[in-house]
């Protein structure tokens, strides 16, 4: 499945209860989402969460964003996909360097290894927050996954992506990004709390947010109603091939469904 100018994904935290994930997946498929995404946590497998989502949404794409290479090597990723029985043709496999260095060489090798292990139709996605990783994604990946960027910064990342693709003599990959979305009462505080956490994870994130130089709670969408959510998402569609609504809500059916419906394409 490729993206279109109106494509939109939806992303959740890994570890969502299996039955709830199936129900959410089915509802998102009916709402017209392009793909469903999960992050990956030390205590919760992103690929397992995708398998649960797939049980309810058999016709749309599935993405994991991202599997850090300090916890997952390419051979293990391939084996886990086989074990879970996920259709490779539906998969977008996102990888990041985690705590390992040097990032560019490590990711380049990992993409090459995954190409050998996984079927040709599986899409390989590189996580990128800096220009050199965007260029790398343009040169070797099927998509680049951004994180915590404003639309203008995402558009600039897209130009670096195009440079990498042009230098490598290949088609420009898809530019995707998580966009945090909180809906309803308390939405602004939820976005501020999430952003505050990420601003202080490590020095890399502190530099990233410092370079954007915006007030806390500015990077994402927080709105009480669907029309306002759609209005705030519009600039991301102008900058990206695939905005992925990263749900900020309690892990219960009512809260998750509220965000999915308000942000639906």
Summarize the structure.
This protein is of the alpha/beta class. Helix content is 48%, strand content 19%.
Q: Count the helices. How many?
A: 10
Strand content: 15-25%
Please name the fourth-level CATH homologous superfamily: Luciferase-like domain
How far the N terminus sits from the C terminus, by CA atoms, comes to: 16 Å
Q: What is the SS-derived class?
A: alpha/beta
The ordered string of helix (H) and strand (E) elements is EHEHEHEHEHEHEHHEHEH
How many domains would you count in the coordinates?
A: 1
How does the overall form come out from the CA principal axes?
globular
Describe the protein.
With 265 residues, the protein is α/β, with parallel strands linked by helices. It has one domain: Alpha-Beta Barrel (TIM Barrel), CATH 3.20.20.30. Helix content is 48%, strand content 19%. It has ten helices and nine strands. The protein has an eight-stranded parallel barrel, surrounded by eight helices. α3 links the parallel β3 (61-68) and β4. The longest helix is centred in the middle third of the chain and has 18 residues, at 151-168. The protein is globular, with a radius of gyration of 17 Å. The mean pLDDT is 95.
């Amino acid at each position: 499945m490729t993206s279109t100018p109106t494509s939109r994904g939806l992303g959740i935290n890994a570890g969502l209860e299996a039955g709830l994930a199936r129900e959410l997946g089915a509802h998102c498929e009916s709402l017209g989402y392009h793909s469903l995404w999960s992050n990956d946590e030390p205590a919760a497998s992103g690929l397992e969460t995708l398998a649960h989502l797939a049980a309810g949404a058999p016709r749309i794409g599935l993405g994991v964003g991202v599997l850090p290479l300090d916890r997952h090597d390419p051979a293990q990723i391939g084996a886990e996909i086989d074990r879970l029985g996920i259709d490779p043709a539906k998969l977008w496999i996102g990888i990041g360097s985690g705590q390992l260095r040097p990032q560019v060489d490590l990711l380049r090798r990992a993409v090459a290894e995954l190409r050998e292990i996984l079927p040709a139709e599986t899409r390989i996605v590189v996580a990128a927050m800096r220009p050199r990783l965007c260029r790398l994604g343009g040169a070797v990946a099927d998509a680049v996954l951004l994180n915590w960027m404003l639309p203008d910064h995402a558009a600039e990342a897209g130009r670096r992506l195009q440079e990498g693709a042009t230098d490598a003599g290949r088609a420009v990959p898809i530019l995707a990004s998580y966009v945090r979305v909180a809906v309803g009462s308390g939405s602004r505080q939820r976005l501020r709390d999430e952003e505050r956490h990420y601003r202080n994870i490590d020095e890399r994130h502190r530099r990233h947010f410092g370079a954007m130089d915006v007030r806390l709670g500015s990077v994402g969408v927080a709105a009480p109603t669907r029309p306002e959510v759609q209005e705030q998402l519009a600039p991301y569609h102008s900058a990206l091939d695939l905005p992925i609504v990263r749900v900020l809500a309690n892990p219960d059916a009512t809260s998750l469904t509220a965000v999915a419906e308000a942000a639906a394409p």
